[in-house]
Design goal:
Layout: H1 2-26, H2 67-71, E1 84-85, H3 94-103, E2 132-133, H4 148-160
């Protein structure tokens, strides 16, 4: 009987140690959100930027755009000289969105994508020039994962190099 009670006690001690290790893994800090009962109350679901001890927030959300900038409407003229430049920001769903731009948008003349090729041809209706500048339409013309600075310096020269000087639009 004593042997059985030692096994039960050992099992309980092992279970307790396992629970402590899991808790430390899930909640490594000294103040664990999982252990606070206040975190589950509806009053705690207020402003996510307000500190619990009412000290000033370390992070204040700011946007560099006015409401007018965010709500403005832009008309894209696919038959004219307008060009969409897709800036791919890594780990934000950009590959999926870039594929969507060349495969799923309903246009007068949709992009032509051939099976087995990553690059699609996105020409303007009745012209042999592209309306989309992305890795799925022009390839890696400005380098792998080009950022804003590289694109603003590279795109005009790549696009304009394919046109005669008199046909280049002013940008």
């Amino acid at each position: 009987m004593e042997d059985r009670s030692h096994k039960v006690l050992l099992a309980l001690v092992m279970l307790f140690l396992f629970a402590v290790i899991v808790l430390q893994y899930v909640c490594p800090g000294t103040e664990c959100q999982l252990l606070r009962l206040r975190a589950l109350s509806p009053a705690a679901a207020g402003d996510p930027y307000r500190a619990e001890d009412e000290t000033p927030a370390r992070f204040v959300p700011r946007f560099n755009f006015s409401d007018d900038d965010l709500l403005r409407r832009v008309d894209f003229n696919i038959k004219g000289d307008d060009l969409i430049v897709f800036l791919h920001i890594q780990k934000t769903g950009g590959t999926t969105f870039g594929r969507h731009l060349v495969r799923n948008i309903q246009l007068e003349q949709p992009c032509e994508c051939r099976a087995g090729q990553k690059k699609c041809t996105c020409h303007r209706p009745g012209k042999r020039e592209t309306w989309l500048f992305s890795r799925f339409s022009t390839g890696w013309s400005c380098g792998l994962h080009a950022d804003w600075t590289e694109l603003t310096n590279c795109v005009p020269s790549v696009v304009d190099s394919k046109k005669e000087v008199r046909l280049r639009p002013s940008r």
